[in-house]
Amino acid sequence: MSDARIIQRGVAKIQTTAGSLDAFVGIAIQTLKAKQSWDAQNVKDFAGFEFGWDARNTHIIITVNFKLTAASQAVAVTNGAFLSEYAQVALSGFDLPWLNTTGVGGVYTGNWCYHEGGSIDLSNEQPGGMEISLRKFKDPTQNSAQFTTPS
Questions:
Q1: CA distances from 86 to 3, 83, 114, 117 (A)
Q2: Is the pTM of the predicted complex or chain greater than 0.85?
Q3: Rounded CA gap, 117 and 120, in Å?
Q4: Domain boundaries, the chain
């Protein structure tokens, strides 16, 4: 959701963190960093040269930094609570489609997983802030499995 107040000329660019996280209503996202990663296995020949490669568990981890803001003080305080382990977080409204729950091209679909916890920064001089880490697997089945409780 690009900001209509920003007038672009020359080259087009993505320059906002416009979007929302359902677990934190009304926050002001400051930065969002993403890193794609996978587990790699390589096969080497007798001389040590690689000739076979496998990539598994492809996923993206995003780190979201935001200010603990909201339409009311009560909701701002609620936003300052840590989520439960492996909580589902739905993202929507971002310019880059793979960030949203709909994913892109049938991959990176579904919710993000709060998988490593977060941190809260409080100060007397500025609004409180929070940083969280979220993970989403490329494979939709694998991604949904991280939210399934075994019976």
A1: 32, 8, 5, 9
A2: yes
A3: 10
A4: 20-145
